[in-house]
Amino acid sequence: MPSALTNFTECIARELSAVDDRFHAELSSDLRCVNTLVKHVSRFRGKMLRPCLVLLSGKACAASELGDAHVTLATVVEMVHMATLVHDDVLDEAELRRKGATINHLRGNEAAVLLGDYLISHSYHLCSSLESQFASRLIARTTNQVCEGELLQIENRNNIDLDDQTYLKIITLKTAVLTAACCTLGATFAGADERRVKALETYGLSLGVAFQIQDDILDIVGDTSTVGKTLGIDIEKGKMTLPMIHFLRTAPAEHRALLRSLLASRDADKVERIRNLILPSKSIQHARDRAHELVDRAREAIADLPDSEAKRVLDAMAEFVVTRPM
Amino acid sequence: MPSALTNFTECIARELSAVDDRFHAELSSDLRCVNTLVKHVSRFRGKMLRPCLVLLSGKACAASELGDAHVTLATVVEMVHMATLVHDDVLDEAELRRKGATINHLRGNEAAVLLGDYLISHSYHLCSSLESQFASRLIARTTNQVCEGELLQIENRNNIDLDDQTYLKIITLKTAVLTAACCTLGATFAGADERRVKALETYGLSLGVAFQIQDDILDIVGDTSTVGKTLGIDIEKGKMTLPMIHFLRTAPAEHRALLRSLLASRDADKVERIRNLILPSKSIQHARDRAHELVDRAREAIADLPDSEAKRVLDAMAEFVVTRPM
């Protein structure tokens, strides 16, 4: 796992390795052309954040070792996430993902649309192998919401007047409901009671929103070689994010006017100029503060859990989500 | 239901109307922008072939009236089909579908990708509302295969040497496994025994292959105003279909050479010239003959079913599939 989370995952190393095997077993096909595409997409698997959330939530609630269901669920959420990445790259027309060329850039939008469909289909297929319908229902409800979030996002493209509330609704739907589902599934399949499941759901939801705010901050302040994906895309694609929304509400009038005119322009150095305008303002810090508040909420939610290695890792991961440089 | 199948569906009119209601109930969202897109896509719902197959297979096997599970399943397969249509139109860059502008043409590829995702997510969501996992497993396995078929198809784009066998594999995966699944589900949920389920699966599979061959024939010989969707797309997109494959194997050498050079060209009147070359040949009739053989196989498969209105309609539908002008 090529990841800055590696330090955190010692206590679930065995399960993560099983997730890897399950991932490849589920996606392998009789058709060579399918395997070639899947092989490429596997190369830009990333931090395995979502499988980690399933497994750690499970461990933090389980009386005994995790069984096969947790490995299945962790693989399912990784596939769902990969599917959204592949389709996102079509939407974003991105060329770079995890330091490798994106599928759409390499093989065209058609292959990318179909590969995303293949991943999502296999995620439901794998999920339906479980005995109960509980996970299938939760995963499908979650992907319904992810699609709604994405649709709301493109509806608000170039909406310079986007407010905080709608921004939060978009990122909750497109990112946080899935991280919440990971924690809910992990806890539920470990036999946790309702109150504890709810606590982990709150943890996952807050962490997901914080994670997306950090992503949006990195899109402005990040360094492409560290982050490993095309940056400045939010600006290019007219996606308003928290730092920009804050800037347009609080910066001096002439700065606000300049940002508005830059956002509307098609200048080649538009992204660079917007960065230079926002970086010295208080708006990046404002977004960081909001993300930190959410991390605090996530950590509070699990404070009552009995002490365990898994709980300590969940606690540290919440912090990592908003300090990561990638 | 604006369809030439209307005459066939009297015996399932009540259930089809319930499918319509279920379809809208499942897809309705709190978000206005989502409802607007869904409303548009609903306008080009078509023949309802797949829901009809679920319901008629159910009726043909059931001892009593069909229950709610059949309505659910019929809605699920229609949503799966709509999702593939919406993504197909992105792949094909089509502008016209069922006499209305396609989503991608109206709202851009992004909305079309996401709307397809929304439809597929809701189809699994609705399917997971059933008590047993049987349908979820079959539907997910089927969509796995549909994706494989589509990927195999784009892998063979512009492959002038495509053989019959690979062509049949492509259309079986991308079209016929879903029609087969419709019949399997309809029969299974009506309590049919294994032999009868198998008979209906064979019916659905043969009918699906025949249906796709007829679609491919219409793409060459059809009239846009009757068929109601952009034609000549197979040629434009380098998709080799049965009439072309046959022509390249059997036509006089100079005709074969002309087709090869036309397929490789970028002439504006390429589609027209290819039509004019193939129409007088025996290749359209060859494809029609193959489709009719499959229809015979479909009808044979259900010959042993006890007589019923539903069985007679299934029989007539098989014939309709290869004689329809749209």
End-to-end Cα distance of chain A? 15 Å
- Mean model confidence by pLDDT of chain A: 90
For the largest beta-sheet of chain A, the strand count, sense and barrel status come to:
2 strands, antiparallel
Shape of chain A: globular
Q: What is the CATH homology-level superfamily of chain A?
A: Farnesyl Diphosphate Synthase
Q: Main sheet of chain A: which strands, in order across? A: 1-2
Number of contiguous helices of chain A:
15
The CATH architecture of chain A: Orthogonal Bundle
- The helical percent of chain A reads over 70%
> How much β-strand is present in the residues of chain A?
under 5%
Biggest chain-to-chain interface with counts:
A-B, 43 and 43 residues
Element-level helix/strand string of chain A: HHHHEEHHHHHHHHHHH
Which oligomerization state do the chains in this entry correspond to? Answer: homodimer
Contiguous runs where pLDDT drops below 50 for at least 5 residues of chain A: none
Q: Tally of extended strands of chain A?
A: 2
- What is the CATH topology classification name of chain A? Farnesyl Diphosphate Synthase
Quick structural summary:
The structure is a homodimer. Chain A is mainly α and about 325 residues long. Chain A has helices at about 15-25, 30-45, 50-60, 70-90, 105-125, 135-155, 165-190, 195-220, 225, 235, 240-250, 255-265, 270-280, 285-300, 310-325; strands at about 95, 100.
Describe this structure in words.
2 copies of one chain form a homodimer. The first copy, chain A, is mainly α and 326 residues long. Chain A has one domain (6-323): Farnesyl Diphosphate Synthase (Orthogonal Bundle). Helix content of chain A is 73%, strand content 1%. Chain A is built from 15 helices and 2 strands. Chain A has helices at residues 13-27, 32-43, 49-61, 68-92, 103-127, 134-155, 164-188, 194-221, 224-227, 233-236, 242-250, 253-264, 270-278, 283-301, 309-323; strands spanning 96-97, 100-101. In chain A, strands 1-2 form a two-stranded antiparallel sheet. In chain A, a hairpin with a 2-residue loop joins β1 and β2 (100-101). In chain A, α3 runs antiparallel to α15. Chain A is globular. The mean pLDDT of chain A is 90. The interface between A and B is large, with 43 and 43 residues.
